[in-house]
């Protein structure tokens, strides 16, 4: 760490600056915005509409993900500090990789929409970080950020441009992808000492309340996450409404199931911090479809149920039998609900005709590239 | 609790899903937004304008109210956890009750405006929750949510459609209503042990700072709360400006009075956490009126004064003599300032002519229905 | 304190109300917004565009600055409480002083833009507060608020109207000004006991996480701070993009340098809480210029480097040799990066021709008036 970390961080930043110098430009026709006497939608309109959504997503990435992981009494500062480091590197690298892929290696322009996509790409690494928290050094996280975002961009390109599948709220390409990538890395990093759990792996009263800051800001702004890159108008409006009600339904189911499966009916804090968000993940893929609010609520309820059961049954099973130790339980918050989201979109499309195969391919590719990418990344110790 | 709570929560969620299936639809004419070559205000315009205000209110409901109640050292997690549960149920139920009332039992559409109103309706229950915190179980809170929002919707219908009274920032229909409803419930739940106070009824250094997270987010976004459902243009603009300055004035008075009435002039934390917000409550009813900023500042100053004196004198009096134990002092934050707001609107209208009687009726009805509803609800143990 | 503080606070609030009554009016032509069948940009457009930016800045002032200073274990509540008091007084007084200066003593109108400027003017005092935290009473802070905002308004008038210099993100007029004003006051208040540090001048684990709430909300919303008063269109867009990437680059450099200069390569919390923000300060002055993103990233990297080195070397030197004790290290977060920002703007303008002298005069005047103002204010004990 003594010199490796600073040298690597500075080296990466210098590389970013050079790549930005070579490839990144301001949006050229921004000046159109001045001519407001035109009536067609201008850059200015799109700025006014997108910037608040961008800021909501920005809060989710830095405060939401950062604080959600503070529940462990000894890793509060690491969570929120390394989260900031990963996201700051990730958004620069994500801007580059996504931009170069879509511009086929030419110079490209950045606007608010590209900033939202850059923030999104960091989310995958932050989700994976939840699985390996406490098991990795900052150096390993820098490497993982670079590798995972490259794989993410490749899979996202495959899903959007080759399969032409729909994934507005990114249940598959961000949540399932991030979770399975992280689990694959965690599997590689497994040491037998993790089986019995670690005494640092505990929360205290205050650390659980800090984590609720993360939970609540994620919960509140999730409608913005699922609608930020949706087509303006009907699609965006539906993404907001569906996510709003899916999350509300998810809270009731998650509380109910948590109380059912816990000793003496007490509410388990880790369920409340995480499973209440599963409705946002699961409704993502079909967020902008014409599914009606009550279907969104059913999807949210299923996600809440699946997520709590995952914490209760699957996490211990993974740790002991599969030898995968998932520190924050990202499989239950992002993995399973992401799969639920992918399956829901297949059903939604099946009912309304159309390209089931591509939707299934998108789900498969998101999980497949994540697992392979994660296994390879895990070797880079 | 063992099975009652999960069964009730799941039962309520199933009921919500069925009712949404029967009654709730997307906004039909959202597609107008596509035709941006029209120059009249479209749904799209209203979306761009309302969505940021909605998100501000959303932060107030979940982070603001949730963290404001974390000041008690032993109830931090309950506050923020049960707050989320109540609000998630309340926003579904509020959508239904308000929608059905205004559509006279027909199918109805939901847009951002309806989502703001649904969030508002949950605020009444969250205010009442502050009065009964530590005295009720989650089961009782689910019942209270269903009952209180129904009574709230009835009173709101009375005020807006029958009295045609003005209550933009909802000083009367939300704040006074929520406070007196909660006090009525607290009165019914009174046990003599509460007279001397409870050793759990204490704050510690960290819990007081957590509560400040709630205070600050409420304080910051209060202009959005008071302007979210105001008429766009002048009215909305005035609601923002008046609330901004009323709150600022309230802070100075609350600090001054707190220092005056406290031993050796120290600032009392509970005053700073709560009384600084009274200016937002009190200016609510006349927020969008043409009262001039300095009048808003006078209203805010009076609210800060009344609120601190309420904590100092009225809360102990209520607990010992009236046998009403108000855990978070909601009477001082929402009750009294709500009444100040109602009275201020009567004065404002008296000075500028017009319907004083209806405004007074609105205040009376908000307090009356709250007390009766709360007393009845309190019996449902 | 017993009576002086309450009397002074109430007296100031009464004075504010009288001055608002005499001078402040609603925006007169707000009604234009009703006529949405006009196609030119209306007040309504500007409201829809500015209000979300205003709320972002508002969060920075009250949550960002308030929580950033909670890192000291014994001053958490003072930080966040006195921060609220200062800001509430400051925004009223800032509205008046700025309004009267620009209207040359006539009645003036207030809109969202004036509210943003009022929030900005409080930022100077909050920055200075960071230098004197733990050394001043609430009474002294009330006096400092009144004096500092008056001097700030005078300097801002000089910079904008006489020098006609550019300072969109206010690196010089707010950050450098606030820092040097605070340092001058701290120099006057110096007592020899401060040389060895104080046992209250320590953080604990939880207080450091509280401070991260401040850091993150400042970091997230800084693009709004630097763009809120920029010209709409290209300028505003560039201010957002440049700030976004400058901050990201700053994080990597700050982490790297922190790890280099700290014992055994550990990351120092105070660096992460503060130096990661220096990129936002430093890019402020040229935020809206056509400098290209990679230059913004270079500015951010330099700021991160300078800020960490400041904490490591300059703060101890100031405390022992210069006899200036800077509690929160505002010189490293706002002072030095503000100077970097001023110098960067001189270089940027030099490269592209134009008024270097005026830009240099703006930097000089911001530091000069701050130091003189602070020295005079420090005497008012």
Automatic annotation (TrEMBL), chains A, B, C:
Reactions it catalyzes: NH4(+)(in) = NH4(+)(out); methylamine(out) = methylamine(in); CO2(out) = CO2(in)
GO molecular function, one term: leak channel activity
Localization per Swiss-Prot or TrEMBL: Membrane
Segments passing through the bilayer: 6-24, 50-72, 84-103, 115-133, 139-160, 172-189, 209-229, 241-261, 294-314, 335-354, 360-378
Pfam families: Ammonium_transp
One Gene Ontology cellular component annotation held by this UniProt entry: plasma membrane
Entry protein name: Ammonium transporter Rh type A
Taxonomic placement: Eukaryota, Metazoa, Chordata, Craniata, Vertebrata
